[in-house]
Amino acid sequence: MSFSTTTPVIAIHGGAGTLSRASISAEQQAAYRAALDEILRSAQAMLAGGAPAIDVVTEAVRQLEECPLFNAGRGAVYTADGRHELDACVMRGSDLAAGAVAGVRTLRNPILAARAVMEAGGPVLLIGPGAEQFAAECGCETVAPEWFDTPHRLAQLHAMQASDRIALDHDAASHDAPTVPAPLDERDKFGTVGAVALDAHGHLAAATSTGGMTNKRPGRVGDSPLVGAGCYANDRTVAVSCTGVGEAFMRGLAAYDVSALVEYVGLPLRFAARRVVMDKLPPLGGRGGLIAVDARGNVALPFNTEGMYRGWARVGEAPVSAIYADEAGPEQ
Ligand code: ASP
């Protein structure tokens, strides 16, 4: 077993969007930070114990799917016809192995299904009932589609349909909806979750999971389950997980673009990540952000919205979580 001299590190996100800072209590902000911190500490402990990055990002995203504060797994948003269609992807940087599922309705943890697809070593992306059947055969927990129903998300759907809009998770809540105010405005936030990690062996991995966009057309798939768009990992370059307007991240191949700028242009991670998020995505309508870690343990978490739920933790150091743009990043 080989060990890298670089300190292992995990970074996670829970979506990006605009702020509702003025109306948010310290307790509500603290709830989001506590959720991020708890997941970071758990991942940090795994990394300290020598766990592979692929296991660490899978588990971190599973925990984010289980956390009702974020739009992935339970609490996922609704499609236009009042259902849930979930997407997830996981990728291992050491051999470019990847697995993904899209449009699944009965899998409790889509990220575990994506991992099962990766481990099988055949197709990279399975969709709909075929993905559900395969995941069930692999032992993934299945639930009734109604298991993902929540009054909060249903109110968001009705609000969006009343104004004939399609929205990213946090664009979708109504002022009148019975929502608990969140630090990022639920009417204008992307709710995808993700994790990237560098492990003690020098390997990278990335994972992304989402409920997609409120009032999305049934069958619509965004960037999250697409290798190179919303998720990418390559030990030679970087691990990336994105959140934002999926169509723009797909058209810009956002995650792979960061890797390409590192590999072919030689840009340091922070400049490559900012170039994609600040320069390349906005002309495509690409509101959102990404998290990235490279093989040297550099971390970048750029976003072009007012805030992004995010955090990072190096082994041996206190985890740091942040929401707003004016909070210091890992490189400041
Ligand atoms: N990127 C996701 C999608 O387009 C949405 C999000 O980040 O919340 O499905």
Task: Summarize this structure as a short list of keywords or feature phrases.
4-stranded antiparallel β-sheet; 332 residues; 8 helices; globular; 15 strands; binds aspartic acid
Q: Any overview of this molecule?
A:
The strands form 3 sheets. Strands 1, 2, 3, 4, 6, 7, 8, 14 and 15 form a 9-stranded mixed β-sheet that branches. A 4-stranded antiparallel β-sheet has the order 10-11-12-13. The protein contains 8 helices and 15 strands. Helix 2 (53-66) runs antiparallel to helix 3 and helix 3 (110-120) packs across helix 4 (128-137). The chain has helices at residues 26-48, 53-66, 110-120, 128-137, 151-162, 246-251, 254-265, 269-280, and strands at residues 9-19, 86-92, 97-104, 125-127, 167-168, 184-189, 193-198, 204-210, 213-214, 231-233, 238-244, 288-294, 299-300, 307-314, 320-324. The chain starts with 8 loop residues before the first strand and ends in an 8-residue tail after the last strand. 30% of the residues lie in helices and 25% in strands. It binds aspartic acid (ASP). Aspartic acid binds at residues 15, 168-169, 190-192, 210, 212-213, 222-224, 230, 243-244, 246, 288.
